[in-house]
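Galactokinase: structure tokens wanted.
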Amino acid sequence: MADHAAAEFRTLHGRPPAGVWLAPGRVNLIGEHTDYNDGFVLPFALPYRIAVAAAARTDGMLAVTTVGDDGRPQQAAPVRIADLAPGSVSGWAAYPSGVAWVLNAEGFGGGADLVVAGDVPAGAGLSSSHALQCATALALLGLGGVELDDPDAPSRATVARWVQRSENDFVGVPTGLLDQTASLSCVRDRVLFLDVRSGEMEQVPFDTSSAGLAVLVIDTKAKHSHSDSGYRERRAGCERAASLLGLAALRDITDAGLDDALSALPDELRPLVRHVVTENARVVRTVEHLRAGRIADIGDLLTASHTSMRDDYRISCLELDLAVDTALDAGALGARMTGGGFGGSAIALVPADAVASTGQRVQAAFSARGLTAPGLFTAVPSPGAGRDT
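Answer:
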């Protein structure tokens, strides 16, 4: 992917890029809609990446070109970074522009030509937009002579918060911190146990192959968009519930205190709160199993997570439920939707020798319902973002 982005840069600009920076998409093993409630999440990075080939400009302008699956470049109108403001750029170009806006405010300004290529499935709930933002951040920092993990460089956690700010304040989507942190901080063969409130991270071993298992990702091809009103409504509902309870965030409700909290809330907020509190508990129990090497034991927790998202948080859809139910019927140890919901992808923990048969069952189920054929692939924990070497 890095070579592809570099080659396209040469074709478009007639010179080589100064470098290529890459950031992966992610799968969230468990811990959905807990990040903006100061809770726990457990993602891992995918081997699929967004690559940004970049070179500096001296005129303070940002010019971004993306190369689609068909190989045809699409160039956004160049913008002067100093003139960027929320709402000034729309569509896909708002994501890299927002990153440039934040970095400029943080003292890392400078014009750039960027060429973007990637293989993270778009709209699949696998965080392609955050991969684009993270790769853009690394590229713009790198052009200024700042590489992550250098002694004087901003920390990966700091860059993740800058990327979050660009999406919240510039793009206008109120996402949490899960996706940016996963893309920047995940490592090979581990899942990232992140306490969003404290920022503490633990890299937890997740070697499915040694356990004879695999994570099957099912891209349902159903529309997925974080900017849809459903995401905003649920986040607002969680914030309202916390306010009514006099809490900083729903993270502060313990398992033992859940019933009392629910009884103090209006009916429409109770399912949201129940999901967040029980999902946090499921993340913690999943980590306990993984620390002990009991990968197979997390299956029931994955399925319970999906049930909670379907019934309490109400963010599933026909395609996601069909993918999960069919995978379970085919012998998966557990399955759940992953990502923001309302479409996107599901994951299933399956015996390694049953990946093909499970995928075939899912494809047949979608065909029988007249639905678009799903995308299927197995996912292994992969490295986080960095400069191509």
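The chain has a mean pLDDT of 96. Residues 71 and 138 are 24 Å apart (CA to CA).

Cheers.
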